[in-house]
């Protein structure tokens, strides 16, 4: 799941460049970290010990719509790899995390995350998005 997702997001016209600039020479540490993150989230095995909010606050080039773009890559990858019920659960979890990261990055008191961060259908198109 992690490797398929990154195979796709690295091709995204905007987000791909953000990841490449930030992670140049560090992909070998990032991918195992993300495997640990998703194991912790989905299997509650405590494998991940990091702090996602500061890791994203540091990225000054992020704009509000990037989290919706991230999900538009994540959803079809997950729907391709998992049976529908499980895919729905994983997407819903990712949407909640994306909403909380959005609030941490762009939220002002009383702000609501954009509609793109809540559940919506998306079809796998045969390419990454
Ligand atoms: C706006 C879309 C996003 C972009 C462009 C983005 C980009 C990045 C980048 C470049 C890093 C590496 C930071 C570094 O090591 O310097 C990172 C770390 C990480 N991202 Fe994202 N991310 C996005 C959304 C998300 C979402 C929605 C999730 C969770 C569902 C997530 C989970 C993580 C985690 C767990 C880390 C590792 C943090 C750490 O412990 O170092 N990201 N992200």
- Which architecture per CATH? Orthogonal Bundle
Rg estimate, integer Å? 14 Å
Report the oligomer.
single chain
| CATH H-tier superfamily | Globins
Tally of helical runs: 6
CATH topology: Globin-like
Indicate the structural class. Answer: mainly alpha
Estimate the helix proportion, in percent.
55-70%
Tally of DSSP β-strands: 0
The main pleated sheet reads as: none
Bound molecules: protoporphyrin IX containing FE
Distance between the termini: 15 Å
The CATH class designation is: Mainly Alpha
* Outline: globular
Number of domains: 1
- The stretches of 5 or more residues where confidence is low (pLDDT under 50) are none
The averaged pLDDT comes out at 93
Series of secondary-structure elements, N-terminal to C-terminal: HHHHHH
Beta-strand percentage?
Answer: under 5%
Protein name: Preprotein translocase subunit TatC
Organism: Roseibium algicola
InterPro entries: Globin-like_sf, Globin/Proto
Care to describe what's here?
The protein is an all-alpha fold and 129 residues long. The chain has one domain (2-117): Globins (Globin-like), CATH 1.10.490.10. It has 6 helices and no strands. The protein has helices spanning 2-9, 15-23, 27-43, 52-57, 66-81, 84-106. Helix 1 (2-9) packs across helix 5 (66-81) and helix 5 packs antiparallel against helix 6. The mean pLDDT is 93. Residues 15, 18-19, 22-23, 30, 33, 37, 50-52, 55-56, 59, 62, 66-67, 70, 94, 97-98, 101 line the site of protoporphyrin IX containing FE (HEM).
């Amino acid at each position: 799941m992690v490797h398929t997702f990154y195979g796709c997001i690295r091709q995204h016209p905007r987000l791909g460049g953000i990841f490449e600039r930030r992670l140049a020479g560090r992909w070998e540490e990032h991918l195992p970290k993300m495997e640990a993150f998703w194991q912790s989230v989905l299997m509650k095995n405590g494998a991940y010990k990091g702090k996602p909010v500061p890791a994203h606050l540091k990225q000054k080039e992020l704009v509000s719509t990037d989290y919706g773009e991230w999900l538009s890559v994540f959803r079809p990858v997950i729907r391709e790899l998992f049976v529908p019920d499980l895919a729905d659960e994983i997407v819903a979890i990712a949407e909640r995390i994306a909403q909380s990261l959005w609030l941490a990055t762009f939220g002002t008191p009383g702000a609501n995350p954009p509609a793109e961060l809540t559940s919506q259908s998306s079809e796998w198109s045969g390419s990454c998005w």
